[in-house]
Amino acid sequence: MGANPSLVVVDYDAGNLRSVERALAHVGVDAAITADWADVSRADGVILPGVGAASDTMAKLGERSLTEPLREYVASGRPFLGICMGLQALLDHSDEGGGQECLGLLPGNVRHFGFDHLKVPHMGWNQVTWLREHRITSGIPSGSYFYFVHSFYPDPADPELALGETTYGFTFPSVLARENMVATQFHPEKSGEAGLAIYTNFANWVREAA
Amino acid sequence: MLTKRIIPCFDVDRGRVVKGVSFVELRDAGDPVELAKLYDAEGADELVFLDITASSDNRATVYDMVSATADQVFIPFTVGGGIRTTSDMKTMLELGADKVSINTAAVNDPDLVNEGAYRFGSQCIVVAIDAKGVGEGWEVYTHGGRTPTGIDAIAWAREVVERGAGELLVTSMDTDGHQSGYDIPMLRAMSEVVNVPVIASGGAGGPDHMAEALTEGKADAVLAASIFHFGTYSIREVKDALSEQGIAMRPVADRD
């Protein structure tokens, strides 16, 4: 166990960057905000935040030379947490804005809700049911409520990737996890106590893995 | 399932919470950050701050409040009042607000809605509509409800959503401050023409009024101030009452 593990939040101008930083500070975690690929490469834990459009996200990651370092970081097996757009960016492809290739770290697509009978975006508090055990959800009851704001949802190629699911019109995977990767479609930094617990669990994981 | 939201609203003047009765008489109800923390702990789903500070000399008090709130409260919150440009929006969002609400500025310059939605995303652009019944319909008022615009409120709702508003905060000037219920026909008319969430405001006297707005009024969220600030009902009491009526609510966590 490292004495001072380095937990970084990737800065690519995502709108919720500061909220994530504040939530981490609130649970006593000292995180570095960085746009420097070298910081990502040597980190013990990485959080990819995000709100906004898939095309902007991929363009910004590219401009800041973060795309390959993120792929390499994930391949190294160290803990990774993606949030909202930071989840969607992990999949192969998003249907948003006429189609956007994403990082391809998890197999699958990102699709639009496309409801006639329900409002889009899916905005507000909704329940997440855990589908299996994972350290990121430790101590958080299945069926807890989290805050969502999104018009697109993840559609992973492998159903086993789903760690949590949520129902809005139909049931979709709202948390994905594989090996060292975890990603939530909801915003833990805006989800009160349950959300803060996600950050605490992630920080503990990073500390133990470092 | 997606829950309906209960949103306490704070009218803030020079960093202090006040609430107007029919927008005229103002009473002080406390420190905004302390109230925000209290309401978060009580189960508020979201918070709205409306800055009614008249002088721009006092803007710094609002900046401090927004930043302090974002440091201590981890549920979404919206800031409105005095936001006239995308630069004002950027300031508030960077200070930690999740959404900004515009009202008079949107009427004066409707392109501000498009520009804000383009730059920051629709999800953080709330258009507040203050309206008053006239004939068969409702008319938009600006400047805190003092200035009639001649604009039809339902047409305006449709227009701002087309321009990119992600949510509407709809206040009835007729019912606001009277605690005798929301303007259900107006809410319903508005909810039926837009595909974004509608927050009902103006007239909450208790949970029954809220239930009415969320069912017959088809609103997605209800906003209230006085009944919470003066302790007539707690958020928990409201949520319990609405749950009993079969309305989906995020339960209030029990804390030690």
Written account of the structure:
With 210 residues, chain A is of the alpha/beta class. Helix content of chain A is 27%, strand content 31%. Chain A is built from 6 helices and 13 strands. Chain B has an 8-stranded parallel beta barrel with strand order 1-4-5-6-7-10-11-12, surrounded by 8 helices. Chain B is built from 10 helices and 12 strands. Chain B has 256 residues and is of the alpha/beta class. Chain A binds chain B through residues 15, 18-19, 22-23, 25-26, 51-53, 119-127, 145, 147-149, 167-168, 189-193, 195-196, and chain B through 1-5, 40, 45, 70-72, 74-76, 93-94, 96, 98, 120-124, 166-167, 195-197, 220-221, 250-251, 253.
Gyration radius of chain A, rounded? 16 Å
Tell me the number of helical segments of chain B per DSSP (H or I, 4 or more residues long). 10
Instruction: For the largest sheet of chain A, list the strands in their spatial order.
Output: 2-1-3-4-13-12-11-8-9
Compute the number of strand runs of chain A.
13
End-to-end distance of chain A: 5 Å
Shape of chain B: globular
Shape of chain A: globular
Tell me about the biggest sheet of chain B?
8 strands, parallel, barrel
Quick synopsis:
The complex is a heterodimer of chains A (210) and B (256). Chain A has 210 residues and is an alpha/beta fold.
List keywords for this structure.
heterodimer; A: 210 residues; alpha/beta; 9-stranded mixed beta sheet; 4-stranded mixed beta sheet; 6 helices; 13 strands; 27% helix; B: 256 residues
Topology at a glance:
The complex is a heterodimer of chains A (210) and B (256).
Chain A: E1 7-10, H1 17-26, E2 31-34, H2 37-42, E3 45-48, H3 54-63, H4 67-75, E4 80-83, H5 85-88, E5 93-94, E6 100-101, E7 108-112, E8 122-130, E9 144-150, E10 152-156, E11 162-168, E12 170-178, E13 181-184, H6 192-209
Parallel strand pairs in A: 1-2, 1-3, 3-4, 4-13, 5-7
Antiparallel strand pairs in A: 5-6, 7-10, 8-9, 8-11, 11-12, 12-13
Chain B: E1 5-13, E2 16-21, E3 25-30, H1 32-42, E4 47-51, H2 59-72, E5 77-80, H3 86-95, E6 99-102, H4 104-108, H5 111-120, E7 125-134, E8 137-142, E9 147-152, H6 153-163, E10 167-172, H7 184-193, E11 198-201, H8 207-215, E12 221-224, H9 226-229, H10 235-244
Parallel strand pairs in B: 1-4, 1-12, 4-5, 5-6, 6-7, 7-10, 10-11, 11-12
Antiparallel strand pairs in B: 1-2, 2-3, 7-8, 8-9
Helix pairs in contact in B: 1-2, 6-7, 8-10
